[in-house]
Structure to design on (343 residues):
């Protein structure tokens, strides 16, 4: 009798589906599949944070507003949506916003963006079509451009690729107090780019936020080739990779610049930058050296890799994390690049 009842119920469901073919047993939702972000710069120099919420199909209903209970938060909602198997928290640039946090509330995905300063009206949300939605946030807390003390007339109209070492899933070397190579390299690189842009150069960054260039957890070769591709595809005049050195002995110290052995122009570029850095920072001069580093070897243009200081050295880690020292190094690197183009 029990088995007969089961069969009757099953047959009834099948017949119902045949009679009403458009019936759906589950509501189709938008799936939030990825969060990404970049710091962007407009032609007039204004910088803003661009956040993309990528979905499996177009989002029809979405909104954003200030959190009425927290003036340091923006809240956005995506209706008829759910979160896929991704991290619900993403660290952001740190200048405009700290992080974004996702949660599900009934049939809505709600996101909270934690800002560095109070919300103003300088933000917007808009559709990316089938890719999802985007949020742009402008904020006055972004670092002001770094001005060079000397005129850098030789870099005007030059295409210069700046490669901040490591990033994203790769922290690089870590100092005794926890400061990471990817942080120091990126901070100095941003300042170098600012100086060169103000001087009329066209700067191309291999990364403009804390991300992997190829993608998270890529092979070393794929990640490095992705950086090389940025410079090669831009037809850059030079490629400058900025790093922090490291060694097991914390006493190791100083500044050094590398170039590919068969590149005379690479040697000239390395020498110009090294001399300016040592003049500016007063650290031990470890000189210039040849190398087979991937990004230096495979770039089509003259390329160098700078080891600004030893992050594993207590004193130099403190310098690398200091904004004023970062600016000093950025000016020196930019001036070294300008010197290279003088001949």
């Amino acid at each position: 009798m029990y088995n007969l009842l089961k069969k009757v119920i099953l047959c009834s469901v099948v017949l119902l589906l045949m009679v009403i073919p458009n019936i759906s047993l589950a509501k189709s939702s938008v799936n939030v599949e990825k969060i990404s972000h970049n710091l962007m710069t407009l032609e007039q120099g204004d910088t803003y944070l661009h956040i993309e919420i990528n979905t499996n199909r177009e989002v029809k209903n979405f909104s954003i507003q200030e959190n009425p209970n927290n003036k340091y938060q923006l809240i956005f909602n995506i209706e008829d949506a759910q979160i896929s198997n991704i991290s619900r928290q993403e660290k952001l640039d740190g200048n405009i916003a700290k992080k974004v946090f996702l949660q599900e509330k009934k049939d809505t995905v709600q996101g909270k963006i934690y800002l560095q300063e109070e919300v103003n009206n300088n933000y917007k949300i808009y559709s990316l079509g089938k890719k999802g939605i985007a949020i742009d946030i402008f904020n006055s807390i972004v670092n002001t451009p770094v001005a060079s003390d000397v005129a850098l007339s030789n870099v005007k109209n030059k295409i210069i690729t700046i490669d901040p070492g490591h990033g994203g899933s790769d922290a690089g070397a870590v100092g005794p107090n926890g400061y990471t190579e990817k942080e120091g390299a990126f901070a100095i690189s941003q300042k170098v780019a600012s100086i060169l842009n103000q001087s009329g150069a066209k700067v191309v960054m291999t990364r403009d936020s804390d991300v992997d260039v190829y993608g998270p957890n890529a092979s070393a070769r794929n990640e490095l080739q992705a950086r090389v591709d940025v410079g090669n595809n831009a037809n850059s005049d030079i490629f400058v990779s900025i790093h922090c050195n490291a060694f097991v002995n914390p006493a190791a110290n100083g500044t050094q610049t590398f170039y590919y052995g068969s590149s005379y122009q690479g040697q000239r570029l390395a020498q110009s930058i090294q001399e300016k850095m040592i003049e500016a920072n007063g650290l031990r001069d470890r000189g210039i050296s040849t190398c087979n580093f991937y990004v230096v070897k495979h770039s089509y243009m003259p390329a160098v890799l700078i080891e600004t200081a030893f992050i594993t050295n207590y004193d130099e880690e403190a310098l690398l994390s200091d904004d004023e020292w970062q600016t000093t190094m950025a000016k020196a690197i930019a001036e070294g690049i300008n010197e290279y183009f003088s001949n």
